[in-house]
Write a structure and sequence with these properties.
mainly alpha
């Protein structure tokens, strides 16, 4: 298949160089320890973002060139398998986000604990970007972290106000 217009050339696309000699299993173990996504979902999620076209991601191209694009992937994938992995990646990110925000909004975490969670999360995210070969300018990285920290402080403050203003529990079942 021909390369999609505007997409990186698979010969020049050199992400994931830092895991060149690693097995799928080793990459998968690391990701399972630090995230909810598998190595397959991570790699394909990244490729779908990088090979995005005006009509969406180029599933056929990604699937056919997977072993050339990602060193720890050894087999080609059908467009359906690429789409399924992309979909699984999106669902897991959304679910993790919902879980995080629920913990923040219900008051399970203090503002300081939220800052700690965000710091740890940003460390893992930066490491994954580094492994992919994606570099962020330090000023951009600091700016993004500051913005996220400010938003999370506001979330914690708003959640505290909501809990404070909430009417007393009537002792009944939810929805009563």
């Amino acid at each position: 298949m021909e390369e999609p217009a505007g997409a990186p050339d698979s010969e020049k696309y050199r992400k994931f160089k830092k895991v060149e000699g690693d097995s799928y299993q080793k990459v998968n173990q690391f990701l399972r320890k630090h995230t909810y996504v598998t190595a397959r979902e991570w790699a394909i999620g990244r490729l779908c973002a990088d090979f995005k076209t005006s009509g969406g991601s180029e599933m056929t191209y990604i699937g056919e060139h997977l072993p050339e694009l990602v060193p720890f992937m050894k087999e080609t994938y059908s467009p359906q398998a690429v789409n399924q992995a992309r979909s699984a990646f999106k669902k897991k990110v959304k679910k993790a986000g919902a879980t995080f925000f629920y913990g923040a909004l219900c008051g399970f975490f203090t503002a300081e604990e939220l800052d700690d969670i965000l710091f740890e999360s940003s460390e893992v995210a930066r490491f994954l970007l580094e492994v992919e070969g994606t570099a962020l300018e330090i000023d951009t990285e600091i700016d993004v972290e500051d913005q996220i920290a400010n938003v999370m402080r506001k979330v914690a403050e708003a959640a505290a106000r909501i809990r404070k203003d909430k009417p007393a529990d009537n002792g009944g079942e939810p929805g009563e």
